[in-house]
From TrEMBL, chain A:
<feature type="transmembrane region" description="Helical">
    <location>
        <begin position="266"/>
        <end position="290"/>
    </location>
</feature>
<feature type="transmembrane region" description="Helical">
    <location>
        <begin position="33"/>
        <end position="61"/>
    </location>
</feature>
<dbReference type="GO" id="GO:0005886">
    <property type="term" value="C:plasma membrane"/>
</dbReference>
<dbReference type="InterPro" id="IPR005667">
    <property type="entry name" value="Sulph_transpt2"/>
</dbReference>
<comment type="similarity">
    <text>Belongs to the binding-protein-dependent transport system permease family. CysTW subfamily.</text>
</comment>
<comment type="function">
    <text>Part of the ABC transporter complex CysAWTP (TC 3.A.1.6.1) involved in sulfate/thiosulfate import. Probably responsible for the translocation of the substrate across the membrane.</text>
</comment>
<feature type="transmembrane region" description="Helical">
    <location>
        <begin position="122"/>
        <end position="144"/>
    </location>
</feature>
<keyword id="KW-1133">Transmembrane helix</keyword>
<protein>
    <recommendedName>
        <fullName>Sulfate transport system permease protein CysT</fullName>
    </recommendedName>
</protein>
<keyword id="KW-0813">Transport</keyword>
<keyword id="KW-0764">Sulfate transport</keyword>
<dbReference type="InterPro" id="IPR011865">
    <property type="entry name" value="CysT_permease"/>
</dbReference>
<dbReference type="Pfam" id="PF00528">
    <property type="entry name" value="BPD_transp_1"/>
</dbReference>
<feature type="transmembrane region" description="Helical">
    <location>
        <begin position="156"/>
        <end position="180"/>
    </location>
</feature>
<dbReference type="InterPro" id="IPR000515">
    <property type="entry name" value="MetI-like"/>
</dbReference>
<keyword id="KW-0472">Membrane</keyword>
<comment type="function">
    <text>Part of the ABC transporter complex (TC 3.A.1.6.1) involved in sulfate/thiosulfate import.</text>
</comment>
Length: 300, 326
């Protein structure tokens, strides 16, 4: 008690001290405990340039060699536009379907224990591991007019294989793991307590889903959607077997690029490639913005 | 009034609750106290409707609610880790219970917002309605969780280790504050804790549980001063086990010049306003802890002091050993 009373009043800091302290804090904050930032960052940038940026930039450089009118003619020919529509349309539809069923799959894998769970878990990753051509052949066999599944739709006048529906089916197959694996950790992280809290406040099960669970997993669902969509736009191997590849109907843009190349039309191929690149980038940017917005609200 | 009758719950062969009977009076602040695995949280969840008993009934005011789901029981539940909705503002969290009501019973948006502000004011978080949970401290989050539970005007408030995740200082302030709030609102409340100090400070009555059975129900005073079993004596407050099933609290020893039991002092340190002496009984090689008025000169390690208990409780030894295994 006495000691506390007799303690001298704190000495006021010299006027310059706060500024100096501030600077020191900043320097200290910038110094990382984990060494090697300079080296690893340098290597990362060099590697990314070599692997990603330089190859992509050649696409632009090549197409820049063409004139505007030439570029537009090649990149936006009716056949190319139709191919974009097929590529982006089917990729979007497939990513959307995967969003629903991938979420369901992730939910089942996280929330329930059942015999054979490990096998189901492994099945989800199969589309990752399988050579896409194998998937393409298998899917074409099943969904063709005389295949296991296709034969039931044929009499109804619905053709699955060799139409955009077939392409979408292939892309659903390819994209499933992206959604499941993006959503799974977030669902696992979400405690059952949050759901119980909502229930205890009188929420009905569907309200718990739409108002509590879905908003919480939205950022990861969007990530999965973006990944599945990007993969779908670029997918080639599994699609060409089932697509039928008819110009204006079921021809995807990557296939059109290959076709152009086979005809030694490098300029036309790069023009289409450039359009694809810009469009994909724009879509990913948009999804990322939405994601950043919804994530920012939660972490602030 | 809440009446539990013969509540039994097993988890895969393990008896979490064994034939529990309990009555909670209106307006009472009741503590379920016990170590982990004693079944206290399971019991709270059964009262809430978040878990269902294998046998027995739960009745609110004489009405059997055993089969009712949590959404239909009109209880407020506060979770240990807050369980706030991270993507909603604090005000939206508090208003959630009102906003999910059926269309006919749902108040208009402005009214929900006003009610949320009012409750935030009550839990001393006025003006923070537009923040997100991530922007609040642990103590503030727990108060949001409480306001959210109160928003639906429950007839019963249930709190599961409400201060468990908070640091000691915040816990103490929040504890006092919760006690005042309970006095002010008079809402029947049950809270679960493993912290005997918390139970003794807050509760009107304490239910001490162990291994799925109730060991004692009583006021904090009764539970501390008149423990019904060796387990209660051991779990609530500190107790020395002396030979012959004798339990003596550290502060219930007296130092005497002659007679008594000789104790060799092993270590001594200041524990708040008393000296805490750890020594061994010369006769039985048992470790004893005793408190000595800190205004007196303390003995030194190695000294022999002579002690007599001022007050003691004797329990059958077989009971004591079976609980010691716990």
């Amino acid at each position: 008690m006495d000691i506390a009373v007799n303690r001298p009043p704190p000495v006021p800091l010299a006027p310059a001290a706060p500024a100096r302290a501030h600077l020191r804090n900043r320097l200290q904050r910038n110094r990382s405990v984990i060494p090697g930032f300079g080296l690893t960052m340098g290597l990362t940038l060099a590697w990314l340039s070599l692997i990603v940026l330089i190859p992509l930039s050649t696409v632009f450089i090549r197409s820049a060699g063409m004139g505007w009118s030439e570029f537009l003619a090649a990149g936006f020919s009716p056949r190319a536009v139709a191919a974009y529509r097929v590529s982006f349309g089917t990729a979007f539809a497939a990513a959307f379907v995967n969003g629903v069923f991938g979420l369901l799959t992730a939910w089942v894998l996280v929330r329930y224990e059942f015999p054979g769970k490990r096998i189901v878990n492994g099945l989800v990753d199969l589309p990752f591991a399988l050579p896409t051509a194998v998937a393409g052949i298998a899917l074409a066999a099943i969904y063709a007019g005389n295949g296991w599944v296709g034969q039931w739709f044929e009499p109804l006048g619905i053709q699955l294989a060799y139409t955009p529906i077939g392409i979408t089916l292939a892309l659903i197959f390819i994209g499933l793991p992206f959604i499941v694996r993006s959503v799974e950790p977030v669902l696992e992280d979400m405690s059952a307590e949050v759901e119980e809290a909502a229930l205890s406040l009188g929420a009905r099960p569907w309200q718990v889903f739409t108002r509590v669970i879905l908003p919480a997993i939205m950022p990861s669902l969007l990530t999965g959607f973006a990944l599945a969509f990007a993969r779908g736009v670029g997918e080639y191997g599994s699609v060409i077997f089932i697509a039928g590849n008819m110009p204006f109907k079921s021809e995807i843009a990557p296939l059109l690029i290959v076709t152009q190349l086979e005809q030694y039309d490098y300029a036309g191929a790069t023009a289409i490639a450039t359009v694809m690149l810009v469009a994909s980038f724009a879509v990913l940017l948009l999804i990322n913005l939405i994601q950043a917005w919804s994530r920012g609200r939660m972490q602030a | 009034m809440i009446t539990l009758d013969g509540i039994t719950k097993t988890f895969g062969g393990y008896r979490a609750l064994d034939n529990i009977d309990l009555e909670v009076k209106d307006g009472e602040f009741l503590a379920l106290l016990g170590p982990s695995g004693s079944g206290k949280t399971t019991l709270l969840r059964i009262i809430a409707g978040l878990a269902f008993p294998d046998a027995g009934t739960v009745a609110f005011d004489g009405e059997d609610v055993t089969g009712l789901k949590v959404a239909d029981r009109k209880v407020g539940f506060v979770f240990q880790h807050y369980a706030l909705f991270k993507h909603m503002t604090v005000a939206d969290n508090v208003g959630f219970g009102l906003s999910v009501r059926k269309r006919g019973q749902r108040p208009p948006k402005a009214q929900i917002r006003a009610r949320a502000e009012e409750l935030l004011e009550l839990v001393q978080l006025g003006g923070l309605g537009n923040r997100y949970p991530a922007q609040l401290s642990g103590g503030q989050r727990q108060r949001v969780a409480l306001a959210r539970a109160l928003a639906v005007e429950p007839q019963l408030l249930l709190l599961d280790e409400p201060f468990g995740a908070l640091d000691a200082k915040v816990r103490k302030t929040l504890r006092r504050w919760l006690r005042d709030l309970h006095k002010q609102m008079g809402l029947t409340s049950i809270f679960v804790t493993h912290d005997q100090e918390e139970a003794l400070e807050l509760a009107d009555r304490v239910v001490v549980m162990d291994h799925g059975v109730i060991e004692q129900i009583g006021t904090p005073e009764q539970v501390y001063m008149e423990p019904a079993t060796a387990f209660v004596s051991d779990f609530v407050g500190e107790t020395n086990h002396l030979p012959g099933g004798i339990h003596v609290r550290p502060h219930e020893f007296r130092i005497v010049e002659d007679g008594g039991q000789p104790v060799i002092v092993e270590s001594i340190f200041r524990k708040g306003g008393v000296w805490r002496i750890e020594g061994s009984l010369a006769s039985h090689a048992e470790v004893v802890e005793l408190d000595l008025d800190a205004t007196l000169a303390p003995p030194s390690p190695g000294d022999t002091i002579r002690i007599v208990p001022r007050r003691l409780k004797t329990f059958p030894q077989s009971g004591a050993t079976s609980h010691d295994q716990a």
